[in-house]
Each structure stands twice: as structure tokens, then as C-alpha cells.
Amino acid sequence: MTITRRDILLGTAAGVAAGAVMPALRGGAPAFGQTKLNYTPEKGAELRVLRWSAFVKGDEDSWIANTEKFTKETGVKVRIDKESWEDIRPKAAVAANVGSGPDIMFVWFDDPHQYPDKLLDVTDLADYLGKKYGGWYEGPASYAKRDGKFIGLPLATIGNAICYRESWMNEAGFKEFPKDTAGFLELCKALKAKGHPAGFAHGHAVGDGSNFAHWLLWSHGGRLVDENNKVVVNSPETIASLKYAHELYKTYIPGTESWLDVNNNRAFLAGEIGLTANGVSLYYAAKNDPKLQDMAKDIRTTPFPVGPTGVAAELYQITSNIIFKHTKYPNAAKAYLQFMFEEAQMQEWIKQSSAYCCQTLKAFANNPVWTSDPNHVAYAKASDLLRTNGYAGTLGYASAGVMADYVVVDMVAEAATGQRTPEEAAKRAEARANRYYRV
């Protein structure tokens, strides 16, 4: 069921009337500052874009403003719809399979690898943007590439970090945030004893649940598959990570096994938990609420602690823009994405997203947003540091299927809550993963 939906029709009658079309619709390419579109929109083109519901208002407002600029310049009407995070994946799958629906979508992780033959090849556009703007970060690009071709454009990496109340950490007897998993567990125990339990999503939360479960697995040396895409999740390292998850779960507020992406935000902002993992949106939700100013001043962000492997290993949420082959206006769709990724629009969007959306093109790493607030630092290098969910194998049909089926998330949740022993949870995850990674 859709949680939030708003249809926005951009463009006015005057701007799109036949007698007032822009040069692009008459065969020329309009200029945007020093930039010219590489694609001439089809005559009478209209686009429908489906994106996820924003957690940071500036992201959505800036995207809409940039879209309005595109409509003003080209006369191409663009309707923007939005859906809850959990609804994006099934909506995209349906559109791909039935061959109708939105022209462009914002999708998650390696979802494009589930239906690559249904997506428009945008390699020419990706190569143009990469060459112009310092190249794509390898991690985000891998999510949008299939057999050496771009089947989407990696739009942003939504960084994930530990968000906590500094005064409550001090109250629990810690002057600094622990940098390893052993110390992290002790902090969570101490916070629980002081009435400030932790809380991490163990439900089918697209971002928070997936990010946390993969960090927990990787931090102890576990992995779903090896370099040859052989399922190796049922391992001593995985068992160790699940035993740790069970101990950590004892420090939580009740009910996290049903949490989706909004639940930890609500619990934190209500003062029910003292520590969770989230994008920077949590900080801004407090900062922008007049009633939560004291809380906002107390919030700190930090990278996830490092586990027994001694190596930082984190999954961040990737969102990519895809164009379906069923679109009637492929040139207009490419022109739209080119316009949105050009510097004048993209830098402003990143800035207005307030460190929520990390750039996927290296030239935009100089955006001033990353140094404008100390709480942004933990998110600044998300695109550079992320590990893909297909680790240590490759992304493809199998990795996308496992991700969409929440195999790792369910394994961690089952062991953490005691629904299954760590050994049972790992064995079940192995069986489920093998359905996708067929030899």
C-alpha cells in the first residue's frame, strides 16, 4: 500500500503550446548555460517519473525545481509521482514485466539487474557524464552496469552512520564513541541500563535493515558468496556475527523485528532510543523541529564500528535512475536525465539534500555541503567506501534476487531475536541463497 503519493504536473499551457515550443522540439538543442543537450526530445513528448518519498525535504524540493527548469527550457511536461521506499521495488518490477507505467524510475541497489532487458541502454549518456565530471565511483557504477553497458545512471549513495545522543553516551560512562564492535556492545549495554536502549531495524527496511544486516555479517568476516559466486554464508564467521547480533539485540527497545525505514527515526525522535543507524535525515528531522532543538544539539554521527576483521565494511543504499524501454519518448527521457546530472542542477540538488545524497560523479565531491556541518563528515565518502551487496561475487540476477528477498536481513533477524539459533539461521539463509545462485 502506498504511504505517500503526490502527482505534480510541471509546465504551463503557455510553455507547451504548439506555437511556443522550444528549439529542441523543432530540431535544435537548447543551451543551459554552457551546456547543450545531446538529445532532441520527441515532438509532443511527456514524461512520467516515479521516485521514492523523500526523507529530506530539500531533496524533493530541489528535484522538482530542477525539473521545472527542464520543462521551461524544452516544453516537455514531466509528471513526478512518489511512493514509499518499500513500494518502489515491486512497482518497478511490475512496470518492467508488463511494459507500461513510468518512463523513468528511481530504484534501489541492484534492482536493475532483475530486468536488464527491459531497460534502455544509456551507455552513451553515462560515458558523456563520466568523462565530463571526473568519472563515476566504482561502487555506484557497478549497480547500474550490466555486461559492460549502463542500464541506468547511478544517482546517489544514501550514506548510513550511527546516530547517537552525546550526553546519553557520557551518562553511560563513555567519553568517546567506541571504534570496535566489542566496545560498541558494551556501550549499548550501558545505555540500556540507563534507560536509553538501542534500536536497529530487523524488518524488511529497504535501507536501514539491509545496511545494518550486511555490516553485521561483514564485520565478522562473513559473506554471502565467494569470488566465484558460490554460496558460503553458512560459515564460522557468519555464526560469530549472528551470535553477536543476538547479544546486541538484548540492548534494544522491543519490537525492532517489525521495523521499516521510518520506525527507528520515530523512536529516536521520540526519545525512546539513544542510538540507531540512519542517514543524516534523522539529524535534520530534529534540527528542523522547534520542539527538538536541544536534541538536535546533542546528536552526533559516526561510522559503524569495525569488527574482528579489522576492516571497515559497510553497505550503503544506492539509488539509480532507469529508463524503461517501453517509454514512447526515449530521447526526451535521456535529455531529462542529462539535464538533471549537469553541474548546475546536480550540485544544487546535492547541496539542498543536506548530505543525505552523496554524489556518484567524482567531480561533485567538492560540494560545500560536506564541510558545512560536523555531522555531515560520516556521510561524505559513502560513494567511495561502500561495499556492494553482491560481495565477494558479482552483481547480477542472483544478487538482486537475494537482496529483494531479504535473505541476509531475515537471517540476522532470526538469530538476533532467537527465532532460530545462529546455526539454523545460517543454514536456512544458505538454502534460500542457493535458489538464486544455482550452479
TrEMBL record:
InterPro entries: Bact_solute-bd_prot1 (IPR050490), SBP (IPR006059), TAT_signal (IPR006311). It comes from Oceanibaculum pacificum. It comes from the Bacteria. GO terms for cellular component: periplasmic space. Coiled coil: none annotated. Keywords: Signal, Transport. Pfam families: SBP_bac_8. It is found in: Periplasm. This is ABC transporter substrate-binding protein. Belongs to the bacterial solute-binding protein 1 family.
